[in-house]
Amino acid sequence: MTTNIGAGFRNADSELFGRLVGCLDFANDRPFFQAYKAHSWKSLKIEPGQLILDVACGTGSDLLRLAAQFPDTQFIGVDKSENFLAVAKERAGSTPNVQFVPGNAQQLPLGDGAVHAARIDRSLQHVEAPAAVLKEMVRVTKIGGHIVACEPDWETFILFNGEFDDSRRIAGFFQRSIRNRYIGRELASLMNECGIATLRTHVHAFWTSQLPEADVIFDLRKVADQCAEAELIAREDAENWWTLSEQATQNGTFFAGLNIVETSGVVG
Known about the structure:
Elements: H1 5-8, H2 17-28, H3 31-42, E1 51-55, H4 61-69, E2 74-79, H5 82-92, E3 98-102, E4 115-121, H6 130-140, E5 141-160, H7 165-177, H8 183-193, E6 196-208, H9 211-218, H10 220-229, H11 235-251, E7 255-267
Parallel strand pairs: 1-2, 1-4, 2-3, 4-5
Antiparallel strand pairs: 5-7, 6-7
């Protein structure tokens, strides 16, 4: 059984790399994703002269937008994927206030208290040890610095095209492909255990009535096929679900939704 995008982000340097980049670029251009990211950036309390860390920075899109918005602030992105970093560096060009370096999120290549604030966005869902990553973020952030994490709560993932049972099965299959599918609701608890105080949580609700949009973000065609391969639904039912979803999109009744949880706090 081939891997869907949900599981594919665990190893970005795989044969899925091109699709992963396409998924990230597509999402980053959507108004919802731009809005929740902008909201989370405010929680970093960015000031001139600071050094801001982006853990698991991917293709660097967020840092490049931040670097343009805050030209007197320095930004550093860390990612273990050589391919992601190559894309990020190419896109950065000669941008003077951003750099991208290789590194494992559980062993960040930075000294204690090296940065003024740190963020991670939709990556704790994929790592083996989310708490270890948060502890590293605390270690490299100065006392009083802000830490921000945004993660989906995959139990809130909903699909509906007028049909209940197969929609639930397909949504559930994708949920189970995520390593840490409850990480959104766990953020505040994990951050508290890691010594992050003054915690604040905000929930961002994503939804779309467009199957093509949901397909790019959630890899629905592949997931429906995987459900059939795993004999969770019949092949005929998978095809019928897709046809119903196309019809629902045409009349405005298709629905795909997911909550993204943003939690921020201060290093004590």
